[in-house]
Design brief:
- With about 475 residues, the protein is α/β, with parallel strands linked by helices.
- Helix content is about 60%, strand content about 5%.
- It folds into three domains: about 80 residues; about 200 residues, no CATH class; about 170 residues, Rossmann fold (3-Layer(aba) Sandwich), CATH 3.40.50.
- Strand 4, helix 16 and strand 5 form a beta-alpha-beta unit.
- Helix 1 packs antiparallel against helix 2, helix 1 runs parallel beside helix 9 and helix 8 runs antiparallel to helix 9.
Amino acid sequence: MTPSIELAYLLSAVLFVLGLKRMQTPPTARSGNALASLGMFTAVVATLFVHDVLSWPLLLAGVLTGGAIGTVLAVRTPMTSMPELVAVFNGFGGAASAFVASAEIAQYLQGSRLVDASTYSPTLAVVIGVSLLVGMITFTGSLVAFGKLQGLLSGNPITFPGVAFVTGLLLLAGVVGIVLMALGAPELTTDPDITLYAGIGIAASAALVGLFLVFPIGGADMPVVVALLNSYSGLAAAATGFILDNTALIVSGTLVGAAGFMLTMQMCEAMNRSLANVMLGGFGGDGATSSALDIPEGKSVQETSPQDLAILATYAERVIIVPGYGLAVAQAQHAVRELADRLQSKGVDVRYAIHPVAGRMPGHMNVLLAEADVPYEQLFEMDEINSAFSSTDVALVIGANDVVNPAAREASGSPIAGMPILDVDDAETVVVIKRSLSPGYSGVPNSLFYQDNTRMLFADAKEAVSETTEAVKGL
C-alpha cells in the first residue's frame, strides 16, 4: 500500500470518528453526517484512483450519478418514510459486502485474483465466508424490514411452527459452509470446487436466515430491527475491509457495527426486554382499527376541542409535548413548533419529552423536530423529564401510544409490562390528540385514554394543532 493511500485512509478514519462524535446531538448531527460522508468519499476516490481501477472521466461520472440519486432521495423522501430508506441503505450495504466476497471467490476459482493467488489462505477464506454470510443476512432481512415499514407486508409477526429451529439449522449450515471455505484453500486441497459449492451454500442459507429472522418480528420492534441490521451491515463491511486489505472499510465498518449494536442494546433496555426476546418474541403488529366510538364496557372518555385545548395551554405555566409516530404520519412537526412558539410568547414554559423508542426508527422524533427547527434545549429524554410531569399543568400527547401507556406499570401480564414509559398521567391534565382509541403497535389497549385527568381530541394531528394555534392567537 502506497504512502499516499495510507494517508488518505488515515484522514478518512479521522473524519469517521469526528463525524460519529458530532452525530451525538441534533444541533451538530448534520455536520457530523457531512464529515463522515466526506471521509467515505475520500477513501473511495483514493482507492479507485491509486489502484487505477477507474479513469477520471468514469470516476467523475460515478460521483455525479450517485450524487444525483442521493439528492433526489433526500429531497423526495418524506420524514415518515425515513425508516424504510434506512432499511434499504442497510440492505444495500450488506449486498455490497456479499458481492465483494462473491467476486473474490470467482477470481480465486478463475486463478486471476488481483493479489497473489498464494494469499488465498484458510484465514482469508473464513473472512470471505463471514462477509458473505452476514452480508446476505443483512440484505434479505432489510428487504423484509422495508416491506413491513412500507406496508407491503403485514406488520404482524409472520411465522410458522419451528421457525426458530429452522433458522438455527440454516445458520449452522452457513457456519459449516465457512469451514468448508477454509478447507477449500489451495494449501489444504487441490479441489477448488469445494469453495464454489460452499459459497453457494452460504449465500443461500444466509438469505433464508435473513428472511426468517425478520418475518416473525412485529411492528412494535421495527426500530430495534433497523438498528440491529445497521450493525450487521457494519460488521459485513469490516469483514470486506479485511478481504480487500482496506483500512478505511475496516475502521468505518467497525464503527458502524459497534454503534449499531450499542444503540440496539439501549433500545432493548428502554423497552425492558432482552435482544433474544425481541428477535423471538413476535411482539406487536399493525395495531387495531377501532374507531373513536369503540369504548370498552365500563369505561368512559372525556372529549375536548382545539378551542378548549387552547384555553388550557394558554393559561398553563408548564406544558410538555409528547410526540409520537402519529405526529410523523400527519407531518405536524412544523405546526407543533408554531403552537409552541405561540405559547412561549404568552409566557408558557414549553418542553418536549422524547421516549427512546417513539416512532419507527432510532431518534425518529429528534430528527422530526429538528427538521422543524425546534430548539435542542427544549428536547428532553425520558429519564430527564419524567420527574417534571407531576408539576406540569398540561401534557400534550400527539400521536404517541405505547410509550405513554400506564399498562406498562399496572398490568403484570401485559406484553409491555415493565417497559419504562413517559409518566404523562402524573400531569394535572393530559390531552391526547389521536384519530381513534386503537392501541399502538404492541396491541395493548391504552388505559391512559380513560383516566379522569385525560381529555381526548379525536382528529388529524396537523389539523388539530393548527386549529389550536389559531385559537391561541385569539386569546
